[in-house]
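Hi R.,

As promised on Friday, here is the backbone we talked about, encoded as structure tokens. Could you run it through your design pipeline when you get a chance and send me back a sequence?
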């Protein structure tokens, strides 16, 4: 149980309103005579009630339920056996033992802010590093891949996963309607409907940056990079039955588990490992390194440790520090960069856009979001301006350039214009190497038997609630993923390969030679 007994009778100070006026009576509003009526100039009452009326801000459109804790990231100064400076000049990674303060928010995705933490749902794993060069946010999930590969589809996938707009119930029929028309989602679904789709709690799960980023070294050379967090506590998951038993007693077991572990001094820890690739298209691979529905095979791109993350402090106030914390994929520091991953680019617009609406245009002035390095801008005003950023000596000069005073542009850390030369026709096209089934099948084959059984059980339980057309198309996809998976799910639904052999590939779908061979076998 959380200890709420801090404090004591001594040192208790009188209540005031937000104008600093003492509150002499907090039990009775001001009225004409003891029985009323109330008067309109009742400032203390109106301030209290009208502030209360505005206590809620819009919850996050996704990842509404979550918990934030603090700690540090400690660099190893190396990436695997090599000095890290060969790959990135980001200062937080350079010296072994260097610590950077962090805030980490874990979350579920689809439910509202009071929903059950036992949901079958990806878990968010978002880290804000307060570095000397400003903030770096690494906004990831507990599963290594995602449902879609182009940001333009994000509102659709979320609408399908969120409650039905009429019944307000999460409907498998809507979810699998969308997924069955979205072959790139199969790899994610094979993960999500396995036990990994319900982590036992937040301390026993992995984290993945999912999207592909870049590292930039002092010479301006770039590498593609993927980030992974490995829990020193180990990975634990729940079956659907385990989750039902936990949910019957507690809707917020994962938040409770994390906060209580930290209170007990059992600080959870993760190791950050990265995979690196030279910065090009890698046409030798059967997938695109910028495709977030794919993992990079560990044999070819070995994960290499770069540091560790320790969480050791809970928030003082859930609203100020958890509801208002704001992460975004655009928040990078020198030595780290974006790739052309079409999800990453879309995400980078979306986060700060929603935060200007959800928290307010000055959300970066809030302590939990504020960089701990110097902030010097000419940005002024807007709702809830809390302070004026440092500028020059003269408060009059809030523009640049100026002969009189004010801020000037920073020097580039190295040579300007190191980025790639880009040329190409403006177009709307899928990436060429979609290869939607192969890695999903490999994932299935890597699972232990009980995980496969749970996956099949969960697919059947959900697909049984779907229209026959949707069931057939899903069985068709799962047969392309892996025979055994498609056959077992089909058996649970009473659908054999011969029942789906007539289905044509989806419009614009590209199949590999291997996919075609599997299709030919269906009849
Ligand atoms: C939260 C958009 C894909 C991880 C959010 C929020 C939006 C959003 C609008 C709410 C932010 C807020 O209110 O502060 C998108 C879009 C995506 C996308 C447009 C695809 C184009 C992803 C992917 C991941 C991810 C692939 C995992 C790598 C998260 C996490 C949060 C979040 C962890 C919660 C951050 C927090 O704890 O405050 N996303 N997202 N999102 N997203 Fe995404």
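Update: got your reply. Pasting your designed sequence below so it's all in one thread:
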């Amino acid at each position: 149980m959380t200890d709420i007994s801090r404090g004591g009778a001594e040192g208790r100070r009188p209540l005031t309103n937000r104008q600093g006026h003492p509150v002499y009576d907090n039990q009775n509003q001001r009225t004409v005579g003891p029985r009323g009526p109330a008067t309109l100039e009742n400032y203390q009452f109106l301030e209290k009630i009208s502030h209360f009326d505005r206590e809620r801000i819009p919850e996050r459109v996704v990842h509404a339920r979550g918990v934030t804790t603090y700690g540090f990231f400690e660099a190893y100064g190396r990436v695997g056996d090599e000095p890290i400076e060969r790959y990135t000049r980001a200062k937080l990674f350079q010296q072994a033992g260097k610590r950077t303060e962090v805030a980490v928010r874990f979350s579920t995705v689809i439910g509202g802010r009071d929903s059950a933490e036992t949901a079958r749902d990806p878990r968010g794993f978002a880290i804000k590093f307060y570095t000397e060069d400003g903030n770096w946010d690494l906004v990831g999930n507990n599963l290594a891949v995602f449902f879609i590969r182009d940001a333009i589809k994000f509102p659709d996938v979320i609408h399908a996963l969120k409650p039905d707009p009429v019944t307000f119930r999460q409907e498998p029929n809507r979810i699998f309607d969308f997924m069955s028309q979205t072959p790139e989602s199969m790899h994610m679904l094979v993960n999500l409907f396995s036990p990994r789709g319900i982590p036992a709690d937040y301390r026993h799960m992995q984290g993945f940056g999912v999207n592909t980023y870049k590292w930039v070294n002092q010479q301006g050379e770039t590498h593609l990079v993927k980030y992974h967090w490995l829990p020193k506590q180990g990975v634990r998951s729940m079956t659907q039955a385990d989750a039902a038993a936990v949910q019957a007693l507690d809707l917020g077991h994962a938040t409770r588990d994390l906060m209580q572990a930290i209170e007990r001094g059992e600080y959870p820890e993760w190791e950050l490992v990265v995979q690196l690739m030279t910065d090009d298209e890698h046409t030798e691979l059967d997938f695109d390194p910028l495709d977030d529905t794919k993992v990079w095979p560990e044999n070819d791109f070995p994960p290499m440790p770069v540091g560790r993350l320790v969480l050791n402090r809970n928030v003082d106030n859930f609203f100020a520090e958890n509801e208002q914390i704001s992460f975004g994929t655009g928040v990078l520091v020198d030595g780290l960069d974006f790739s052309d991953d079409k999800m990453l680019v879309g995400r980078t617009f979306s986060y700060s856009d929603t935060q200007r609406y959800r928290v307010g245009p000055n959300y970066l002035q809030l302590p939990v979001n504020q960089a701990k390095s110097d902030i010097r801008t000419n940005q002024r005003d807007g709702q809830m301006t809390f302070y004026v950023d440092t500028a020059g000596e003269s408060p009059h000069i809030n523009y640049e350039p100026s002969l009189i005073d004010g801020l000037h542009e920073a020097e580039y850390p190295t040579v300007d214009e190191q980025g790639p030369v880009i040329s190409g026709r403006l177009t709307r096209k899928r990436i060429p190497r979609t290869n939607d089934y192969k890695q999903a099948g490999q994932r299935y084959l890597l699972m232990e038997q009980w995980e496969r059984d749970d996956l099949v059980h969960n697919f059947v339980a959900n697909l049984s609630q779907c229209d026959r057309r949707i069931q057939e198309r899903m069985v068709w996809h799962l047969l392309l993923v892996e025979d055994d998976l498609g056959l077992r799910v089909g058996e649970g639904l009473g659908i054999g390969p011969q029942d789906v052999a007539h289905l044509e590939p989806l419009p614009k779908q590209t199949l590999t030679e291997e996919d075609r061979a599997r299709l030919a076998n269906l009849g």
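One thing I noticed while checking it: The radius of gyration is 26 Å.

Thanks again,
M.
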